[in-house]
Amino acid sequence: MKAVDEFTIVSNRLPIVMHREDDGWHVESGSGGLVQAMSPILEKLGGRWIGWPGICAEDGNGWYPAIAQAGAGFRLEPVILTRAQVDGFYAGFSNSVIWPLFHGFADRCDFKPRFYQTYDEVNTRFAEAIAPEARSNDFLWVHDYHLIHVGQKLRTLGVDARLSFFLHIPFPSAENYTKLPWREEILEAMLAYDLVGLQTGRDRRNLVQCIERLMPELNIYEIGEMVVVEMPRGSVQIGVFPIGTDYGDFSRRAGSQAATERVAELRREIGPYQVLLGIDRLDYTKGLIERFLAFELALDRYAELLEQVVLFQLVIPSRENVPEYRALKRELDRLVGRINGRFSTPSWQPIRYLYNTVSPPDLCALYRLASAALVTPLRDGMNLVAKEYCACQVEERGVLVLSEFAGAAAQLGEGAVLVNPYDIDATAGAIYTAVTMADDERRRRMRALRRRIKGSDVFWWAKRFVDAALEPTLERQVGTRAGPFQGDSNGGLPAAQ
Ligand code: GDG
Asked: Which CATH number does 247-455 carry?
């Protein structure tokens, strides 16, 4: 394997949250899937993390000393953007074009040309921040849909390090992707990396179909676990790398004495009911409306659930400056009010709804306490909540109700109760199945899920990705025959993808 001088992680947000108080700026560690996944790895390996700190050029630079002191075992390098850049790049192109399109919601896209221009400009800013310190032997790993163009910009700036990219969200079908006015530009930018990683085999099939359709002159074939696309400057590998969670940490925390005490406290606060748990960022892709409707239908249909179950739904505030998200929040508030109004009794309220974040210890205690987790997104790259829930189920009594449209379903389909979240009727039935499932079946399913999640945790994921980037299939397999791309590979992973 090639020696690496330095690891560099690049993502839209630095893994911190900054806030100003009377005595100056303060830094806290951030939340979200990417932070959960990357922090332990960089803490272990050292290096630098480059990203936007969440504050704008207009806020002055009094925050700088606070950032310089933060970062556990790695350097944090902020990319400063103006408010207008953040608007066009983050709220605009990233979250009003790529996010909806890649999750299959083309009619929610706002294809304003100025959004794309700002996206391109901000990606250039990122590349300019990275390039001066980048060396040939560095490992540069760019994350997610906000920064697809960074690799191409780095090449233009003469950076010759190996460049890798991982897409945390789904890659859409060619039918949806080709609606994008900048479809060639985005695809060309993805093919400027040496390695492109996707969450599932389905995402990779979609990407390859888009390349075949929009760039028919390119040669595409399969070697080992990788799909290889030959580009004029060299070949690009496209791999399937389902992201995992830090299983060991979650299960240790959930099994601790502190968690046992917190579970008992929560039990006293919530009451003697079976807890159905939902934990999601505020987002229309997470299927929250459909989930509440399914829960309402279950209460209507199965009288034995009344005064027996509580849906504990935590919604994490997110993207509140995007109008779509504000409208979704209003709709959720209305729906929760209606359902609680319809079914509550003096001693029981069917939905406990928190629009907030909780501390990591509380998160683990909730995961351990819940009889079932409702993870029912309409589309999701992976969904780490599904995996964290199982990691924390140390007593192996919980049931995972999982959408077939979450990337996690490709790995966890056998142990989970799979649902089509658009089918409100069937989801209501799945809720009933979960609540009434016999103990031995719960244990059998949860044990299988935990084994699977433990064996493909976040460190397994990162190692597979880094190995693939530093020792590409083409070098590892000199002499083996390459086959044409068949379109049905699951990337060498054991489960159907
Ligand atoms: C993207 C993709 C993909 C949530 N609430 C609290 C809290 N969290 C943490 C969870 C979990 C993370 O946030 C959410 O991760 P997800 O995977 O569910 O979703 P996205 O944020 O949309 O992430 C997704 C992921 O990237 C990784 O590739 O799986 O498909 O959309 O880790 O634990 N943490 C704390 N308090 C909370 O209140 N401490």
From this structure: 3.40.50.2000
